[in-house]
Amino acid sequence: MNQRTLPPLGPDTVVRLSRQGGVAAMPRLAAPREIQFSDCSEDQRGQVCAVLERCLPVAERAVGGADQRFFQVELRYREANQPSEWIITVPEQRAPGELVELWKRGLRTG
Amino acid sequence: MTPFRPVAGFIPPYLLDRIIERGSERQRACARGTLQHVRQLRPNPGPPGLQARQAPAPGRPGQPQRHIHDAEQRMELPGVPRRSEGQAETGDAAVDEAYEALGDTYRFFWDAYGRDSIDGRGFALIGTVHYGDGYENAFWNGEQMVFGDGDGEIFQRFTRALEVVAHELAHGVIESEAALVYVNQSGALNESISDVFGVLTKQYRLGQRADQADWLVGAGLLTERVRGRALRSMAEPGSAYDDPLLGRDPQPAHMRDFIVTRDDNGGVHLNSGIPNRAFYLAATAIGGPAWERAGRIWYDTLLDRRLPNDADFATFAGLTLTQARARFGDASAEARAVAEAWQTVGVEIDP
After folding, report:
1. Does domain B13-177 have CATH number 3.40.190.10?
2. What ipTM is given for this predicted complex?
3. Which has fewest Cβ within 10 Å: A61, A79, B225, B252?
4. Sorting pLDDT into bands at 50, 70 and 90, what band is B299?
5. First to last CA, chain B
6. pTM score
């Protein structure tokens, strides 16, 4: 099981979202989207964290088997002044709609 | 709320391997422990969860038992039944292609290797087509095969390519046998073996010798708008497509170009190019129909209980040579071809 609580994510956090795997796996189709918290408003950071919270209950360690696609969320952040990293993987079939939207369209503005 | 604690298992296993190789003593000790833990989390699942649900009755030996469903563009499985074994064509191209392709794949495994379906015991072949809206994928979910229609811009419907349908069924066969773990080199072997039996199914259906085949996976799947001929090339990994939108096919053909990545479970669809080319080289060196000798060696290896589920390329290669020698003789042309094929792609066989 994955961890159920997000680490504290400060303003230097970087979130990378991508969709991985599939029989037609091609690197460009993963369409990675990077979100830098330093470029985000408080509201937008909250939006990202809310999406990540939705992912935690449906995250799985072993994903992608036999061409099943999955979403990969990579968090790079600082903890106790040390760079830290965290990866969450979510099977496509269980991915929250908000995660898919965030990956496809990015953050809402305004 | 659970207090925050680092979960080391989120580090991909290939990174743990690198830490074990190059890290400090403490890092190496931690990584070893974590890797062991990760491996415990990924046990061999054994045969597919056929008994987990009410599965349709198996067919008689030598007779497929097909059931094709229609997801009607939703993502719910298995969907509405459309065509079962023995029923007439429906006029829906995806339904009929899936039915025919699953039948072709069943017949290939039965005729070539005497294998009775996915589990060797006549497991019913369940396929769902029209999965999702413009869905650009096909997969095996542990119980059935699933096919999308493609977006029409990059991909056409995935049932068009017999070798792709067979590739998905082969994933079920692999799961029933070696259950190669779907990460890093064992994952790339899983993908490669599916490609091997995918193209062999097509070659068997067309009655092609090794030198007559195109050795492409997903030929005809890309639309005319894409500059490419397939998803992958087993003969020339890295040459299947070169397109402004998709980029260039990144598959390596040799160990010196092995891709270390955290994406795609450690590049399982990328590094499969290396064992794919080894199979192509062995099959073309041996000559004749590739399923008869090269395919037989790969099939024997897949069923060899000495093949661990976390096998790397070298371990798998060593067992293919063992199987080639056992079936055809120590000094046989087949054994020589297998040894040379692995050497050519830079995989050193374990002594």
Report:
1. no
2. 0.93
3. B225
4. very high
5. 52
6. 0.89
